[in-house]
Amino acid sequence: QVQLVESGGGLVQPGGSLRLSCAASVSIFSSNAMGWYRQAPEKERELVAVVISDGNRNYADSVKGRFTISRDNAKNTVYLQMNSLKPEDTAVYYCKMVRYGYNYWGQGTQVTVSS
Length: 115
Fold this sequence. Notes:
Layout: E1 4-7, E2 10-12, E3 18-24, E4 33-39, E5 46-52, E6 57-59, E7 67-72, E8 77-82, E9 91-99, E10 102-105, E11 109-113
Parallel strand pairs: 2-11
Antiparallel strand pairs: 1-3, 3-8, 4-5, 4-9, 5-6, 7-8, 9-10, 9-11
């Protein structure tokens, strides 16, 4: 059974940084893709960043140049480094794994950007 556990969320001031972690219960090396999504109140869940099995990375336009997704296969963990945070980045951030055609989600971690 695949389990994804996010951590690292919290309250940060505008312009600050956070690093989110997503620890998987299975090898992420075998995944097709690992990604971060977010959902703000009364909005649909949206893609933030994804890293494909071949190493390619894609980002939402709103976070390009500020967020970086990375993976540590040895630790079965995916990270999202978030810099220059803005109030509009406030949301619940979810980790997603695509593996053998199935989608798996974590429980989410709250990120709040406010002064």
